[in-house]
Amino acid sequence: MVLGRAMKPRLRFAPSPSGYLHIGGARTALFNWLWAKSQGGVFVLRVEDTDQERSSIESVRAILDAFVWLGMDWDEGPEVGGPHGPYFQSERKAIYRELVEGLISKGHAYRCYCTKEELDRAREELKQRNPKAQFVYPGTCRNRTDQPDLPHVVRFKSPRDGVTEFVDKVFGPISTPNAAQQDFVLVRTDGYPLYNLAATIDDHLMDITLVARARDHIGNTPQQLLIYRALGWDPPEFAHLPMMLSPKGEKLSKRHTSVSVQDYRDRGYPAAAVLNYIVRFGWSSGDQEIFSRDELVRLFSWDRVNKSDGKFDDKKFADVAFEHLKRAELTPLEEYAKNVQPFLAERGLTAPGPRTLAAAIPGIRERARTYRDAAADLDFYFREPPELDVKARDKLLNAEGAARLVELAETLAGREGWNATDLEAAVREWSEARGLAVKDVAQPARVALTGRSASPPLFEVMVVLGKERSLARLRRAPSLV
RNA sequence: GGCCCCAUCGUCUAGCGGUUAGGACAUCGGCCUCUCACGCCGGUAACGCGAGUUCGAUUCUCGCUGGGGUCACCA
Protein backbone atom coordinates (compact mmCIF):
# COMPACT_ATOMS: atom_id res chain seq x y z
CA MET A 1 0.00 0.00 0.00
CA VAL A 2 1.70 3.15 -1.16
CA LEU A 3 0.59 6.50 0.27
CA GLY A 4 -2.79 5.06 1.10
CA ARG A 5 -3.99 5.43 -2.46
CA ALA A 6 -6.08 2.85 -4.18
CA MET A 7 -3.91 0.03 -5.37
CA LYS A 8 -6.11 -1.24 -8.11
CA PRO A 9 -5.40 0.72 -11.24
CA ARG A 10 -8.36 2.63 -12.58
CA LEU A 11 -8.19 3.46 -16.26
CA ARG A 12 -10.61 5.27 -18.49
CA PHE A 13 -11.48 6.00 -22.04
CA ALA A 14 -13.41 9.21 -22.62
CA PRO A 15 -14.90 9.49 -26.09
CA SER A 16 -16.80 12.51 -27.26
CA PRO A 17 -19.93 11.24 -28.96
CA SER A 18 -19.70 13.13 -32.22
CA GLY A 19 -19.63 10.20 -34.60
CA TYR A 20 -18.51 6.61 -34.71
CA LEU A 21 -15.69 5.03 -32.74
CA HIS A 22 -12.51 5.94 -34.62
CA ILE A 23 -9.96 3.20 -35.10
CA GLY A 24 -7.39 5.39 -33.39
CA GLY A 25 -9.73 5.85 -30.46
CA ALA A 26 -10.22 2.11 -30.29
CA ARG A 27 -6.48 1.71 -30.02
CA THR A 28 -6.26 4.20 -27.18
CA ALA A 29 -9.12 2.46 -25.43
CA LEU A 30 -7.44 -0.89 -25.97
CA PHE A 31 -4.23 0.11 -24.18
CA ASN A 32 -6.28 1.33 -21.24
CA TRP A 33 -8.46 -1.73 -21.24
CA LEU A 34 -5.51 -4.13 -21.49
CA TRP A 35 -3.75 -2.56 -18.55
CA ALA A 36 -6.90 -2.53 -16.43
CA LYS A 37 -7.61 -6.18 -17.25
CA SER A 38 -4.07 -7.36 -16.75
CA GLN A 39 -3.82 -5.66 -13.35
CA GLY A 40 -7.21 -6.66 -12.09
CA GLY A 41 -8.11 -3.01 -12.25
CA VAL A 42 -11.14 -1.09 -13.43
CA PHE A 43 -11.89 0.25 -16.87
CA VAL A 44 -14.33 3.13 -17.02
CA LEU A 45 -16.06 4.70 -19.94
CA ARG A 46 -16.92 8.37 -19.62
CA VAL A 47 -18.85 10.29 -22.24
CA GLU A 48 -17.44 13.74 -22.91
CA ASP A 49 -20.50 15.41 -24.29
CA THR A 50 -19.95 18.97 -23.13
CA ASP A 51 -20.08 20.22 -26.68
CA GLN A 52 -23.83 20.11 -27.12
CA GLU A 53 -23.58 21.11 -30.76
CA ARG A 54 -21.69 18.05 -31.80
CA SER A 55 -22.82 15.38 -29.40
CA SER A 56 -25.62 12.97 -30.10
CA ILE A 57 -27.24 10.02 -28.42
CA GLU A 58 -26.98 7.98 -31.63
CA SER A 59 -23.28 8.45 -31.48
CA VAL A 60 -23.13 7.19 -27.91
CA ARG A 61 -25.01 4.11 -29.09
CA ALA A 62 -22.63 3.56 -32.00
CA ILE A 63 -19.59 3.84 -29.77
CA LEU A 64 -20.98 1.48 -27.17
CA ASP A 65 -21.87 -1.02 -29.88
CA ALA A 66 -18.34 -0.84 -31.19
CA PHE A 67 -16.97 -1.61 -27.74
CA VAL A 68 -19.27 -4.59 -27.42
CA TRP A 69 -18.23 -5.86 -30.82
CA LEU A 70 -14.55 -5.48 -30.03
CA GLY A 71 -15.07 -7.36 -26.81
CA MET A 72 -13.82 -4.54 -24.60
CA ASP A 73 -16.12 -4.53 -21.61
CA TRP A 74 -16.28 -1.59 -19.23
CA ASP A 75 -16.68 -1.84 -15.49
CA GLU A 76 -18.17 1.59 -14.97
CA GLY A 77 -19.92 3.92 -17.37
CA PRO A 78 -23.07 4.17 -19.48
CA GLU A 79 -25.55 1.34 -19.00
CA VAL A 80 -23.56 -0.33 -16.24
CA GLY A 81 -23.37 2.67 -13.93
CA GLY A 82 -20.95 2.64 -11.03
CA PRO A 83 -20.07 4.51 -7.83
CA HIS A 84 -18.43 7.48 -9.58
CA GLY A 85 -21.29 8.62 -11.79
CA PRO A 86 -22.80 10.26 -13.57
CA TYR A 87 -20.65 9.15 -16.49
CA PHE A 88 -21.95 11.76 -18.91
CA GLN A 89 -20.22 15.07 -18.47
CA SER A 90 -23.34 16.93 -19.48
CA GLU A 91 -24.85 15.67 -16.23
CA ARG A 92 -21.99 16.90 -14.09
CA LYS A 93 -22.29 20.64 -14.59
CA ALA A 94 -23.03 21.33 -10.92
CA ILE A 95 -19.82 19.60 -9.91
CA TYR A 96 -17.74 21.71 -12.26
CA ARG A 97 -19.51 24.92 -11.29
CA GLU A 98 -18.75 24.50 -7.62
CA LEU A 99 -15.10 23.69 -8.17
CA VAL A 100 -14.70 26.62 -10.53
CA GLU A 101 -16.14 28.99 -7.94
CA GLY A 102 -13.46 27.76 -5.57
CA LEU A 103 -10.78 28.38 -8.15
CA ILE A 104 -12.02 31.93 -8.69
CA SER A 105 -12.27 32.74 -5.02
CA LYS A 106 -8.75 31.48 -4.44
CA GLY A 107 -7.44 33.62 -7.27
CA HIS A 108 -6.49 30.73 -9.57
CA ALA A 109 -9.05 31.72 -12.15
CA TYR A 110 -10.96 34.81 -13.14
CA ARG A 111 -13.98 35.87 -15.14
CA CYS A 112 -13.18 37.29 -18.53
CA TYR A 113 -15.60 39.56 -20.36
CA CYS A 114 -13.75 39.80 -23.64
CA THR A 115 -16.04 38.53 -26.36
CA LYS A 116 -15.07 35.95 -28.90
CA GLU A 117 -15.53 38.60 -31.56
CA GLU A 118 -13.11 40.99 -29.88
CA LEU A 119 -10.52 38.28 -29.52
CA ASP A 120 -10.96 37.09 -33.08
CA ARG A 121 -10.51 40.64 -34.28
CA ALA A 122 -7.34 41.08 -32.25
CA ARG A 123 -6.06 37.76 -33.60
CA GLU A 124 -6.77 38.92 -37.11
CA GLU A 125 -5.08 42.28 -36.64
CA LEU A 126 -1.97 40.68 -35.27
CA LYS A 127 -1.88 38.36 -38.22
CA GLN A 128 -2.04 41.35 -40.58
CA ARG A 129 0.86 43.05 -38.89
CA ASN A 130 2.99 39.99 -38.39
CA PRO A 131 1.85 36.76 -40.01
CA LYS A 132 4.31 34.72 -38.02
CA ALA A 133 3.44 36.04 -34.59
CA GLN A 134 1.28 33.96 -32.31
CA PHE A 135 -1.66 35.50 -30.55
CA VAL A 136 -1.60 35.26 -26.79
CA TYR A 137 -4.50 36.38 -24.67
CA PRO A 138 -3.19 39.66 -23.22
CA GLY A 139 -4.74 39.17 -19.80
CA THR A 140 -7.13 42.09 -20.20
CA CYS A 141 -9.51 40.81 -17.54
CA ARG A 142 -6.94 39.45 -15.13
CA ASN A 143 -7.41 42.24 -12.63
CA ARG A 144 -10.75 43.52 -13.70
CA THR A 145 -13.51 44.04 -11.19
CA ASP A 146 -15.70 40.98 -11.00
CA GLN A 147 -19.19 41.25 -12.48
CA PRO A 148 -20.67 37.74 -12.38
CA ASP A 149 -23.94 38.87 -13.95
CA LEU A 150 -22.30 39.90 -17.22
CA PRO A 151 -21.69 37.26 -19.91
CA HIS A 152 -18.23 35.84 -19.39
CA VAL A 153 -15.91 32.92 -19.72
CA VAL A 154 -13.67 31.75 -16.90
CA ARG A 155 -9.96 31.73 -17.54
CA PHE A 156 -7.19 30.02 -15.68
CA LYS A 157 -4.55 32.33 -14.27
CA SER A 158 -1.45 30.62 -15.62
CA PRO A 159 1.85 31.20 -13.88
CA ARG A 160 4.19 33.41 -15.90
CA ASP A 161 7.40 31.68 -14.92
CA GLY A 162 8.70 28.32 -13.87
CA VAL A 163 8.20 25.02 -15.63
CA THR A 164 5.63 22.28 -15.43
CA GLU A 165 6.99 18.80 -15.70
CA PHE A 166 5.84 15.24 -15.43
CA VAL A 167 7.23 11.80 -16.04
CA ASP A 168 5.38 10.11 -18.84
CA LYS A 169 5.15 6.33 -18.64
CA VAL A 170 6.11 6.08 -22.29
CA PHE A 171 8.06 9.22 -23.14
CA GLY A 172 9.83 9.76 -19.86
CA PRO A 173 10.38 13.22 -18.39
CA ILE A 174 8.64 16.05 -20.23
CA SER A 175 9.13 19.64 -19.22
CA THR A 176 7.35 22.72 -20.52
CA PRO A 177 8.01 26.36 -19.61
CA ASN A 178 4.94 27.98 -18.11
CA ALA A 179 5.64 31.03 -20.21
CA ALA A 180 4.42 28.98 -23.17
CA GLN A 181 1.04 28.77 -21.48
CA GLN A 182 -1.58 31.47 -21.73
CA ASP A 183 -4.63 32.11 -19.63
CA PHE A 184 -6.67 29.36 -21.23
CA VAL A 185 -10.43 29.20 -20.96
CA LEU A 186 -11.93 26.87 -18.36
CA VAL A 187 -15.63 27.56 -18.79
CA ARG A 188 -17.48 28.80 -21.84
CA THR A 189 -19.99 31.64 -21.90
CA ASP A 190 -22.78 29.09 -21.92
CA GLY A 191 -21.52 27.68 -18.65
CA TYR A 192 -20.19 24.43 -20.06
CA PRO A 193 -16.68 23.43 -19.01
CA LEU A 194 -13.99 22.96 -21.61
CA TYR A 195 -12.11 19.73 -22.08
CA ASN A 196 -9.08 20.40 -19.88
CA LEU A 197 -11.18 21.41 -16.91
CA ALA A 198 -13.79 18.68 -17.17
CA ALA A 199 -11.29 15.93 -17.86
CA THR A 200 -9.13 16.96 -14.93
CA ILE A 201 -12.01 17.15 -12.49
CA ASP A 202 -13.53 13.88 -13.64
CA ASP A 203 -10.29 11.97 -13.69
CA HIS A 204 -9.71 13.00 -10.12
CA LEU A 205 -13.24 12.44 -8.90
CA MET A 206 -13.37 9.08 -10.64
CA ASP A 207 -10.12 8.05 -8.96
CA ILE A 208 -8.33 7.48 -12.23
CA THR A 209 -4.78 6.36 -11.50
CA LEU A 210 -3.37 6.38 -15.01
CA VAL A 211 -4.42 8.45 -17.99
CA ALA A 212 -3.34 6.81 -21.23
CA ARG A 213 -4.17 8.69 -24.40
CA ALA A 214 -2.72 9.54 -27.78
CA ARG A 215 0.33 11.72 -28.10
CA ASP A 216 -1.63 14.68 -29.45
CA HIS A 217 -2.67 15.27 -25.84
CA ILE A 218 0.84 15.77 -24.54
CA GLY A 219 0.38 19.52 -24.87
CA ASN A 220 -2.75 19.40 -22.72
CA THR A 221 -0.98 17.70 -19.88
CA PRO A 222 0.84 20.76 -18.47
CA GLN A 223 -2.44 22.68 -18.45
CA GLN A 224 -4.17 19.87 -16.64
CA LEU A 225 -1.29 19.59 -14.20
CA LEU A 226 -1.66 23.30 -13.46
CA ILE A 227 -5.33 22.74 -12.71
CA TYR A 228 -4.56 19.79 -10.43
CA ARG A 229 -2.15 21.93 -8.51
CA ALA A 230 -4.59 24.84 -8.23
CA LEU A 231 -7.25 22.46 -6.94
CA GLY A 232 -4.80 20.97 -4.47
CA TRP A 233 -5.02 17.48 -5.95
CA ASP A 234 -2.41 14.87 -6.73
CA PRO A 235 -2.38 14.17 -10.45
CA PRO A 236 -2.63 10.65 -11.83
CA GLU A 237 0.11 9.10 -13.90
CA PHE A 238 0.18 9.82 -17.62
CA ALA A 239 1.07 7.61 -20.55
CA HIS A 240 1.02 8.98 -24.06
CA LEU A 241 0.86 6.75 -27.06
CA PRO A 242 2.57 7.30 -30.41
CA MET A 243 0.17 8.20 -33.18
CA MET A 244 -1.27 5.92 -35.78
CA LEU A 245 -0.96 7.82 -39.05
CA SER A 246 -2.10 7.28 -42.60
CA PRO A 247 0.15 5.40 -45.04
CA LYS A 248 1.40 8.80 -46.14
CA GLY A 249 2.17 9.89 -42.62
CA GLU A 250 -0.76 12.24 -42.35
CA LYS A 251 -3.43 12.19 -39.74
CA LEU A 252 -5.52 9.10 -40.34
CA SER A 253 -8.80 10.01 -42.01
CA LYS A 254 -11.38 8.22 -44.06
CA ARG A 255 -9.61 9.34 -47.19
CA HIS A 256 -7.00 6.70 -46.49
CA THR A 257 -8.79 3.68 -45.14
CA SER A 258 -11.74 2.73 -42.99
CA VAL A 259 -11.49 4.76 -39.83
CA SER A 260 -14.67 3.67 -38.15
CA VAL A 261 -14.59 0.45 -36.18
CA GLN A 262 -18.04 -0.25 -37.56
CA ASP A 263 -16.57 -0.37 -41.07
CA TYR A 264 -14.24 -3.17 -40.12
CA ARG A 265 -17.11 -5.22 -38.84
CA ASP A 266 -19.09 -4.55 -41.99
CA ARG A 267 -16.17 -5.51 -44.16
CA GLY A 268 -16.06 -8.86 -42.40
CA TYR A 269 -12.98 -8.62 -40.23
CA PRO A 270 -12.81 -10.48 -36.94
CA ALA A 271 -12.85 -8.17 -33.93
CA ALA A 272 -9.87 -9.86 -32.30
CA ALA A 273 -7.85 -9.22 -35.45
CA VAL A 274 -8.65 -5.53 -35.33
CA LEU A 275 -7.37 -5.49 -31.77
CA ASN A 276 -4.33 -7.50 -32.73
CA TYR A 277 -3.42 -5.14 -35.52
CA ILE A 278 -3.88 -1.86 -33.68
CA VAL A 279 -2.08 -2.96 -30.55
CA ARG A 280 1.03 -3.61 -32.62
CA PHE A 281 1.24 0.09 -33.27
CA GLY A 282 3.63 1.07 -30.58
CA TRP A 283 3.66 -2.19 -28.73
CA SER A 284 5.44 -5.45 -29.37
CA SER A 285 6.34 -8.68 -27.69
CA GLY A 286 9.48 -10.03 -29.26
CA ASP A 287 8.86 -11.44 -32.71
CA GLN A 288 5.31 -12.49 -32.07
CA GLU A 289 2.81 -11.05 -34.51
CA ILE A 290 -0.43 -12.85 -33.80
CA PHE A 291 -2.15 -12.65 -30.44
CA SER A 292 -5.48 -13.66 -29.05
CA ARG A 293 -7.36 -11.21 -26.86
CA ASP A 294 -6.38 -13.19 -23.77
CA GLU A 295 -2.74 -13.32 -24.76
CA LEU A 296 -2.76 -9.57 -25.17
CA VAL A 297 -4.09 -9.14 -21.67
CA ARG A 298 -1.47 -11.50 -20.34
CA LEU A 299 1.46 -9.99 -22.23
CA PHE A 300 0.76 -6.27 -22.27
CA SER A 301 3.13 -3.99 -20.42
CA TRP A 302 4.10 -0.34 -20.64
CA ASP A 303 7.81 -0.97 -20.98
CA ARG A 304 7.14 -2.61 -24.33
CA VAL A 305 5.47 0.51 -25.69
CA ASN A 306 7.63 2.63 -27.95
CA LYS A 307 7.61 6.27 -28.89
CA SER A 308 7.61 6.63 -32.63
CA ASP A 309 4.53 7.12 -34.74
CA GLY A 310 3.39 4.43 -37.14
CA LYS A 311 1.70 4.35 -40.49
CA PHE A 312 -1.38 2.28 -41.09
CA ASP A 313 -0.87 -0.53 -43.61
CA ASP A 314 -3.94 -2.15 -45.13
CA LYS A 315 -2.01 -5.15 -46.41
CA LYS A 316 -0.55 -6.02 -43.06
CA PHE A 317 -3.91 -5.52 -41.46
CA ALA A 318 -5.51 -7.88 -43.96
CA ASP A 319 -2.87 -10.45 -43.20
CA VAL A 320 -3.42 -10.29 -39.46
CA ALA A 321 -7.13 -10.74 -40.03
CA PHE A 322 -6.43 -13.68 -42.31
CA GLU A 323 -4.26 -15.34 -39.68
CA HIS A 324 -7.07 -15.06 -37.18
CA LEU A 325 -9.48 -16.61 -39.63
CA LYS A 326 -7.14 -19.44 -40.56
CA ARG A 327 -6.33 -20.57 -37.07
CA ALA A 328 -9.03 -22.56 -35.36
CA GLU A 329 -7.50 -21.83 -31.97
CA LEU A 330 -8.13 -18.13 -32.60
CA THR A 331 -11.44 -18.46 -34.36
CA PRO A 332 -13.19 -21.66 -33.26
CA LEU A 333 -15.54 -23.28 -35.72
CA GLU A 334 -18.72 -22.22 -33.91
CA GLU A 335 -17.55 -18.64 -33.76
CA TYR A 336 -16.61 -18.68 -37.43
CA ALA A 337 -20.01 -20.08 -38.34
CA LYS A 338 -21.81 -17.52 -36.24
CA ASN A 339 -19.86 -14.62 -37.70
CA VAL A 340 -20.15 -15.68 -41.32
CA GLN A 341 -23.91 -16.12 -41.01
CA PRO A 342 -24.83 -12.44 -41.53
CA PHE A 343 -22.77 -12.31 -44.68
CA LEU A 344 -24.47 -15.40 -46.02
CA ALA A 345 -27.77 -13.78 -45.22
CA GLU A 346 -26.71 -10.75 -47.25
CA ARG A 347 -26.37 -13.07 -50.22
CA GLY A 348 -29.86 -14.37 -49.67
CA LEU A 349 -28.65 -17.62 -48.16
CA THR A 350 -30.74 -17.50 -45.03
CA ALA A 351 -30.83 -20.99 -43.65
CA PRO A 352 -27.78 -23.04 -44.45
CA GLY A 353 -27.90 -26.22 -42.44
CA PRO A 354 -25.62 -25.89 -39.44
CA ARG A 355 -24.15 -29.32 -40.12
CA THR A 356 -23.19 -28.44 -43.67
CA LEU A 357 -21.88 -25.07 -42.63
CA ALA A 358 -19.65 -26.62 -40.01
CA ALA A 359 -18.44 -29.18 -42.49
CA ALA A 360 -17.77 -26.59 -45.19
CA ILE A 361 -15.85 -24.04 -43.16
CA PRO A 362 -12.59 -25.97 -42.75
CA GLY A 363 -12.29 -26.07 -46.53
CA ILE A 364 -12.53 -22.33 -46.97
CA ARG A 365 -10.59 -21.25 -43.90
CA GLU A 366 -7.31 -20.98 -45.71
CA ARG A 367 -8.91 -19.21 -48.64
CA ALA A 368 -11.17 -16.52 -47.18
CA ARG A 369 -9.49 -13.40 -45.96
CA THR A 370 -12.65 -11.97 -44.40
CA TYR A 371 -16.03 -13.30 -43.31
CA ARG A 372 -17.42 -11.53 -46.34
CA ASP A 373 -15.08 -13.48 -48.61
CA ALA A 374 -15.94 -16.61 -46.70
CA ALA A 375 -19.61 -16.15 -47.49
CA ALA A 376 -18.76 -15.80 -51.16
CA ASP A 377 -16.61 -18.93 -51.05
CA LEU A 378 -19.36 -20.85 -49.30
CA ASP A 379 -22.11 -19.69 -51.60
CA PHE A 380 -22.16 -22.67 -53.95
CA TYR A 381 -22.75 -25.09 -51.12
CA PHE A 382 -26.06 -23.51 -50.28
CA ARG A 383 -27.40 -22.30 -53.60
CA GLU A 384 -29.28 -24.71 -55.80
CA PRO A 385 -28.30 -24.70 -58.55
CA PRO A 386 -24.96 -23.10 -57.88
CA GLU A 387 -24.31 -19.86 -59.66
CA LEU A 388 -22.46 -20.55 -62.91
CA ASP A 389 -19.31 -18.67 -63.81
CA VAL A 390 -19.66 -18.61 -67.58
CA LYS A 391 -16.00 -17.98 -68.16
CA ALA A 392 -15.08 -21.02 -66.13
CA ARG A 393 -17.57 -23.08 -68.06
CA ASP A 394 -16.27 -21.90 -71.43
CA LYS A 395 -12.77 -22.72 -70.46
CA LEU A 396 -13.19 -26.01 -68.66
CA LEU A 397 -16.42 -27.69 -69.58
CA ASN A 398 -17.53 -28.81 -73.04
CA ALA A 399 -20.11 -31.29 -74.25
CA GLU A 400 -17.66 -34.14 -74.28
CA GLY A 401 -16.48 -33.45 -70.77
CA ALA A 402 -20.02 -33.07 -69.54
CA ALA A 403 -20.99 -36.41 -70.99
CA ARG A 404 -18.06 -37.98 -69.21
CA LEU A 405 -19.21 -36.50 -65.93
CA VAL A 406 -22.54 -38.23 -66.35
CA GLU A 407 -20.71 -41.52 -66.79
CA LEU A 408 -18.55 -40.74 -63.78
CA ALA A 409 -21.64 -40.08 -61.74
CA GLU A 410 -22.95 -43.54 -62.55
CA THR A 411 -19.70 -45.14 -61.48
CA LEU A 412 -19.64 -43.17 -58.26
CA ALA A 413 -23.28 -43.90 -57.59
CA GLY A 414 -22.42 -47.57 -57.24
CA ARG A 415 -19.72 -47.01 -54.69
CA GLU A 416 -19.97 -47.58 -50.98
CA GLY A 417 -17.63 -45.15 -49.24
CA TRP A 418 -18.28 -41.44 -49.65
CA ASN A 419 -15.15 -39.94 -48.22
CA ALA A 420 -12.37 -37.86 -49.78
CA THR A 421 -9.77 -40.62 -49.87
CA ASP A 422 -12.03 -43.18 -51.52
CA LEU A 423 -13.48 -40.69 -53.92
CA GLU A 424 -10.06 -39.56 -55.04
CA ALA A 425 -8.92 -43.14 -55.54
CA ALA A 426 -12.05 -43.88 -57.50
CA VAL A 427 -11.72 -40.88 -59.77
CA ARG A 428 -8.05 -41.58 -60.33
CA GLU A 429 -8.72 -45.14 -61.28
CA TRP A 430 -11.62 -44.14 -63.49
CA SER A 431 -9.54 -41.48 -65.26
CA GLU A 432 -6.56 -43.67 -65.82
CA ALA A 433 -8.71 -46.40 -67.26
CA ARG A 434 -9.72 -43.89 -69.93
CA GLY A 435 -6.22 -42.56 -70.46
CA LEU A 436 -7.06 -39.23 -68.87
CA ALA A 437 -5.18 -37.15 -66.36
CA VAL A 438 -7.00 -36.51 -63.12
CA LYS A 439 -7.21 -32.84 -63.81
CA ASP A 440 -8.94 -33.47 -67.13
CA VAL A 441 -11.79 -34.86 -65.12
CA ALA A 442 -11.45 -32.82 -62.00
CA GLN A 443 -11.64 -29.43 -63.64
CA PRO A 444 -14.86 -30.06 -65.53
CA ALA A 445 -16.25 -31.71 -62.42
CA ARG A 446 -15.39 -28.61 -60.42
CA VAL A 447 -17.44 -26.48 -62.77
CA ALA A 448 -20.36 -28.84 -62.50
CA LEU A 449 -20.15 -29.11 -58.72
CA THR A 450 -19.34 -25.55 -57.80
CA GLY A 451 -20.05 -23.46 -60.87
CA ARG A 452 -16.56 -22.03 -60.74
CA SER A 453 -12.96 -22.59 -61.65
CA ALA A 454 -11.61 -22.30 -58.13
CA SER A 455 -12.82 -24.05 -55.01
CA PRO A 456 -11.66 -26.18 -52.12
CA PRO A 457 -10.25 -29.56 -53.13
CA LEU A 458 -12.78 -31.37 -55.25
CA PHE A 459 -13.21 -34.44 -53.13
CA GLU A 460 -13.75 -32.40 -50.01
CA VAL A 461 -16.41 -30.49 -51.87
CA MET A 462 -18.13 -33.75 -52.77
CA VAL A 463 -18.06 -34.92 -49.19
CA VAL A 464 -19.54 -31.68 -47.88
CA LEU A 465 -22.16 -31.64 -50.61
CA GLY A 466 -23.03 -35.23 -49.86
CA LYS A 467 -23.55 -38.09 -52.27
CA GLU A 468 -26.98 -37.17 -53.48
CA ARG A 469 -26.34 -33.55 -54.30
CA SER A 470 -22.92 -34.27 -55.78
CA LEU A 471 -24.32 -36.83 -58.17
CA ALA A 472 -27.19 -34.58 -59.10
CA ARG A 473 -24.83 -31.76 -59.99
CA LEU A 474 -22.61 -34.05 -62.03
CA ARG A 475 -25.57 -35.44 -63.94
CA ARG A 476 -26.74 -31.94 -64.66
CA ALA A 477 -23.43 -31.07 -66.35
CA PRO A 478 -24.67 -31.40 -69.96
CA SER A 479 -27.33 -28.77 -69.28
CA LEU A 480 -24.64 -26.25 -68.45
CA VAL A 481 -22.86 -26.45 -71.78
C1' G B 1 6.77 30.87 -35.93
C1' G B 2 6.75 29.43 -30.11
C1' C B 3 6.53 25.05 -27.17
C1' C B 4 6.76 19.62 -27.03
C1' C B 5 8.06 14.93 -29.12
C1' C B 6 10.18 11.35 -32.52
C1' A B 7 14.08 8.95 -36.00
C1' U B 8 16.42 0.53 -37.77
C1' C B 9 14.33 -2.61 -44.55
C1' G B 10 8.63 0.38 -48.62
C1' U B 11 5.45 -0.73 -43.77
C1' C B 12 4.97 -2.68 -38.43
C1' U B 13 8.99 -3.90 -35.42
C1' A B 14 13.41 -6.87 -32.48
C1' G B 15 17.93 -4.83 -30.76
C1' C B 16 18.91 -2.12 -24.56
C1' G B 17 28.31 -1.03 -26.51
C1' G B 18 31.08 -6.09 -29.65
C1' U B 19 25.16 -9.47 -33.93
C1' U B 20 26.67 -12.31 -40.92
C1' A B 21 21.49 -6.13 -37.69
C1' G B 22 16.55 -10.77 -36.47
C1' G B 23 11.06 -11.40 -37.43
C1' A B 24 6.34 -10.14 -39.88
C1' C B 25 3.65 -7.77 -44.09
C1' A B 26 4.57 -6.32 -48.99
C1' U B 27 7.67 -7.60 -53.23
C1' C B 28 10.60 -11.10 -56.51
C1' G B 29 12.09 -16.31 -57.64
C1' G B 30 11.14 -21.65 -56.79
C1' C B 31 8.72 -26.17 -54.71
C1' C B 32 3.98 -28.60 -53.64
C1' U B 33 -0.66 -29.37 -56.64
C1' C B 34 -7.31 -31.59 -59.35
C1' U B 35 -8.26 -25.40 -59.44
C1' C B 36 -7.73 -21.36 -56.13
C1' A B 37 -5.47 -21.07 -51.90
C1' C B 38 -2.58 -22.73 -47.71
C1' G B 39 2.19 -24.37 -46.72
C1' C B 40 7.46 -24.75 -47.57
C1' C B 41 12.41 -23.00 -49.55
C1' G B 42 15.19 -18.87 -51.22
C1' G B 43 16.25 -13.56 -52.99
C1' U B 44 16.02 -8.01 -52.92
C1' A B 45 15.69 -4.48 -48.90
C1' A B 46 17.27 -0.60 -43.12
C1' C B 47 20.58 1.68 -38.68
C1' G B 48 19.20 10.04 -41.88
C1' C B 49 23.95 13.24 -41.46
C1' G B 50 28.10 15.28 -38.55
C1' A B 51 30.84 15.63 -34.23
C1' G B 52 32.11 13.67 -29.61
C1' U B 53 32.53 9.51 -25.35
C1' U B 54 34.79 4.60 -25.83
C1' C B 55 39.54 -0.31 -27.37
C1' G B 56 34.74 -0.55 -29.95
C1' A B 57 28.94 2.65 -31.63
C1' U B 58 22.54 1.06 -34.60
C1' U B 59 22.90 1.37 -29.23
C1' C B 60 25.37 6.87 -24.86
C1' U B 61 25.93 12.77 -25.45
C1' C B 62 25.54 17.16 -28.50
C1' G B 63 24.46 19.58 -33.09
C1' C B 64 22.14 19.34 -37.86
C1' U B 65 18.51 17.51 -41.06
C1' G B 66 13.91 15.31 -41.60
C1' G B 67 9.07 14.06 -39.64
C1' G B 68 4.98 14.62 -36.29
C1' G B 69 1.99 16.99 -32.49
C1' U B 70 0.10 21.42 -30.33
C1' C B 71 -0.82 26.54 -29.81
C1' A B 72 -9.91 27.56 -29.97
C1' C B 73 -15.52 29.85 -25.81
C1' C B 74 -13.42 21.25 -30.13
C1' A B 75 -12.16 17.08 -27.57
Spell out the key features of this protein.
481 residues; mainly alpha; Rossmann fold; Glutamyl-tRNA Synthetase, domain 2; Arc Repressor Mutant, subunit A; 3 domains; two-stranded parallel ribbon; RNA-binding
Number of domains: 3
Quote the average pLDDT.
Answer: 94
CATH topology annotation of the largest domain: Rossmann fold
Number of strands: 11
Secondary structure category: mainly alpha
Count of DSSP-assigned helices: 19
For the report, how would you describe the main beta sheet? 3 strands, antiparallel
Indicate the proportion of strand residues. Answer: 5-15%
CATH C-level class of the largest domain: Alpha Beta
State the helical fraction.
Answer: 40-55%
Regions with little confidence, pLDDT below 50 for 5+ residues: none
**N→C terminal distance:** 80 Å
CATH superfamily of the largest domain: HUPs
Spatial extent as radius of gyration: 31 Å
Task: Kindly summarize this structure in a few lines.
The chain has 481 residues and is mainly alpha-helical. The protein has 19 helices and eleven strands. Helices cover 45% and strands 9% of the residues.
